[in-house]
């Protein structure tokens, strides 16, 4: 049985990740693939509840501590993800380790430090990075009330995501980080995402799952 693929959507605030992950899961199902959605942070776990309180600013945490909690929130899900992949279920993730690096490095934490706690997590077969100009983002909806939902943070995060893309290419070669313009309509973005994903579904076959930053 071919394994499932690990497909990650990343991007700035309001680039449409949550809109598109639902559509991607539905499209995969319609094409005959079993697929399951994972959102990061997963706010349902004990660690996820601490992260949720931090994001809603009802709790304060040291920058290193929250960085490690975001990573721990991925580690507590990794065996479920790996089981799904082995069982032939494709996992679609709404954000992953790359958000963890970009947001913490944007606050000034050392970039190499930011990579380290996620070392060894399942390597995404492809990460689709949804790109959106600040002008279009501003037209979509007002910023929410959560921490990081402001222009300065989002600008700093954008710069860090560019470094993350270079790091993915350096460690894991070309083709694992694909930029998709999120400027178009929901349907146009969905079409471009499917265009990038369908080849991955054929390619992964019985390739072993890789390890991040290894
Ligand atoms: N974070 C971190 O620091 N470290 C980590 O390790 C991780 C995360 C994993 C919470 O994330 C915060 O945690 C996040 C990063 C940090 N902080 N920020 N910013 P989250 O994923 O829970 O945040 P979210 O609020 O769910 O996602 P989002 O980025 O704000 O939005 P989105 O999912 O990309 O967009 P959307 O909800 O699909 O769409 C936004 C709006 O645009 C909505 O009104 C849509 O109807 C509309 N939309 C979507 N697509 C289109 C198109 N194509 N045209 C027009 N309008 C559109
Ligand atoms: Mg979202």
Automatic annotation (TrEMBL):
<dbReference type="GO" id="GO:0004798">
    <property type="term" value="F:dTMP kinase activity"/>
</dbReference>
<feature type="domain" description="Thymidylate kinase-like">
    <location>
        <begin position="9"/>
        <end position="193"/>
    </location>
</feature>
<comment type="pathway">
    <text>Pyrimidine metabolism; dTTP biosynthesis.</text>
</comment>
<dbReference type="GO" id="GO:0005634">
    <property type="term" value="C:nucleus"/>
</dbReference>
<dbReference type="InterPro" id="IPR039430">
    <property type="entry name" value="Thymidylate_kin-like_dom"/>
</dbReference>
<dbReference type="GO" id="GO:0006235">
    <property type="term" value="P:dTTP biosynthetic process"/>
</dbReference>
<keyword id="KW-0067">ATP-binding</keyword>
<comment type="similarity">
    <text>Belongs to the thymidylate kinase family.</text>
</comment>
<dbReference type="GO" id="GO:0005524">
    <property type="term" value="F:ATP binding"/>
</dbReference>
<keyword id="KW-0547">Nucleotide-binding</keyword>
<dbReference type="GO" id="GO:0005829">
    <property type="term" value="C:cytosol"/>
</dbReference>
<dbReference type="GO" id="GO:0006233">
    <property type="term" value="P:dTDP biosynthetic process"/>
</dbReference>
<dbReference type="InterPro" id="IPR027417">
    <property type="entry name" value="P-loop_NTPase"/>
</dbReference>
<dbReference type="InterPro" id="IPR018094">
    <property type="entry name" value="Thymidylate_kinase"/>
</dbReference>
<dbReference type="GO" id="GO:0004550">
    <property type="term" value="F:nucleoside diphosphate kinase activity"/>
</dbReference>
<dbReference type="GO" id="GO:0006227">
    <property type="term" value="P:dUDP biosynthetic process"/>
</dbReference>
<keyword id="KW-0418">Kinase</keyword>
<keyword id="KW-0545">Nucleotide biosynthesis</keyword>
<keyword id="KW-0808">Transferase</keyword>
<dbReference type="Pfam" id="PF02223">
    <property type="entry name" value="Thymidylate_kin"/>
</dbReference>
<protein>
    <recommendedName>
        <fullName>Thymidylate kinase</fullName>
        <ecNumber>2.7.4.9</ecNumber>
    </recommendedName>
</protein>
């Amino acid at each position: 049985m071919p394994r499932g693929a690990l497909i990650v959507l990343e991007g700035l605030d309001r680039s449409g990740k949550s809109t598109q992950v639902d559509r991607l899961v539905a499209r995969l199902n319609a094409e005959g693939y079993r697929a399951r959605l994972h959102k990061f942070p997963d706010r349902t776990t004990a660690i996820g509840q601490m992260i949720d309180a931090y994001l809603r600013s009802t709790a304060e945490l040291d920058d290193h501590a929250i960085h490690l909690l975001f990573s721990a929130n991925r580690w507590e899900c990794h065996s479920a993800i790996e089981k799904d992949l082995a069982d032939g279920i494709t996992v679609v993730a709404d954000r992953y380790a790359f958000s963890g690096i970009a947001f913490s490095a944007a606050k000034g934490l050392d970039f190499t430090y930011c990579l380290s706690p996620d070392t060894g997590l399942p390597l995404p077969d492809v990460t689709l990075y949804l790109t959106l100009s600040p002008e279009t983002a501003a037209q979509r909806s007002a910023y929410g009330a959560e921490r990081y939902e402001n222009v300065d943070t989002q600008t700093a995060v954008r710069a860090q995501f560019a470094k993350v893309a270079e790091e993915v290419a350096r460690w894991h070669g070309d083709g694992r980080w694909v930029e998709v313009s999120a400027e178009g309509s929901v349907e146009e973005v969905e079409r471009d995402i499917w265009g990038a994903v369908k080849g991955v579904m054929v390619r992964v076959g019985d390739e072993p799952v890789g390890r991040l930053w290894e």
